[in-house]
Amino acid sequence: MWNSLSVMTVKQLFSSYPYATDFFSSLPNLQQSEDSSVAQYFAAIEDDTLLDLGIDRQEFLDQFLSFMLQMEKLKEDKVKIESITIIGGKDKQGKAEDIELTIHAGEIVCIVGPTGSGKSRLLADIEWVAQQDTPTNRKILINEQLPDMRCRFSVEHKLVAQLSQNMNFIMDLSVGEFVSMHAESRMLENIEEITSHIIAKANELAGEEFSSDVPVTSLSGGQSRALMIADTAYLSSSPIVLIDEIENAGIDRQNALRLLIDKQKIVLMATHDPILALMGDKRIVIKNGGISSVIQTSEEERRNLVLLTTIDRKMLAIREMLRNGGRIDEIPV
Amino acid sequence: MQLITVAGPPSAGKTSVMLKIIETLQEETLKVGVVKFDCLSTQDQILYQKKGIEAKIGLSGNLCPDHFFVSNIQDCLLWSQKNNLDMLITESAGLCNRCSPHIRDVMAVCVIDNLSGVNTPRKVGPMLKLADIVIITKGDIVSQAEREVFAFRVKQANPSAIIVHVNGITGQGAREVGQLFKRAQSVDSLTDCHLRFSMPAATCSYCLGQTRIGQNFQMGNVRKMDLS
User: Which UniProt keywords are given for this protein, alphabetically ordered (chain A) (predicted)?
Assistant: First the structure.
């Protein structure tokens, strides 16, 4: 790789590999002409500058090459994940979990069980692609095959994206800047288009509208959650989305979940909210560190979901009345 | 005996994460000890000792903490050999972003947290750039997007490192890092070993206790800002 890069001018380097600027932006301004070759550029860096950076010349070159190599790798297409399979291990008492469960892209599976029952361990097993090398002795298959174990430690092959109630935005950026920064890190090309698309989607999901100029930190809870879900649906590289409850305020939860499954995500949701739980195709029941059963959502439950949704809409309508300064003297039946 | 050097900015979550990782190693009956390097004071040895982990404290006081580290690391190794430890973990705070206690052929770990902001990976020097493993903490309170951008920036700063997320409160990810720690090289002695990179030099009049400000009192290794 060095052979081809070293003879380019710095200017050519930046135009052929725009992300290369990221490598140089963390360095002090070396005041070198962009017409010098990459080789000349590195040769002309003074020893004192390297000392300041805390790196020697060869290591610095190696780091540059490894940077370019890794960034190029990010652009490669990844194997599409169609399904994950959980092959049972054992619970805390050593009792075997008699289970083999395959979850397909576009499916929602809920996980229920009391605190401390082992929900997190199950999710950790999936994230780690356990191969009978965790305390539960479970085995995870991807696309019904043994996975490439490199995904355990690779940033770009991370299997699980997480979304929980106590997550917040901390960056000092506007919504637009924020989303496009995420898109840049995915090495996408049509950044503007995708950014405005995501913000429009998030607005569809959020109860109250927001523009791309507002700082992410000043979004309401519902708006934040809507933006996080839209952003995860479009920009997260992870095929599995793990959700830890979604609060029932300021966000259209059913459409939010639909967006994720439309994007062919595998959605795992730890929830005890009846509406969310019944939206799932299946529920995994966890007891005592093991999967005690898998419940298929029944026809009756689907019918009850309609009923629950009606009740939920009523609650939301009452909430809206309160928000607008109304009185709750009568509840419409 | 295996040795691992862990470094990271103050409050990144080094101690919490190490406690969780060591717990998983103890389950495999490994005897792990910790030497914590700090500047002024620390109570962290109590946290370690509560978990039955042998722990020693090194306070650098008015010396540069990383220079203090290098001057003591061989003695720490002897201490852990005397105590028949299987693994010694040293923990130190990289206070100036330029320091790095990492030693050649010794597993080097950097702990850095999501809350420090997405530009931080670009600002931290050899401590991050020359580490073998980078542990990112506090992922449970920021958004997925921020986690991904942060990890991406860490990867840009250190493309060859293994990057892992560990939650210091729940321990999520700790067991997996424990498995990595078990691959650390064995070290019998550090005499004649080299640091991965030189530490920042100072040796100016202020190193020697000068407190007055002004041109007349600046001697030795002095560098001036370009304010033009």
Answer: ATP-binding, Lipoprotein, Nucleotide-binding, Transport
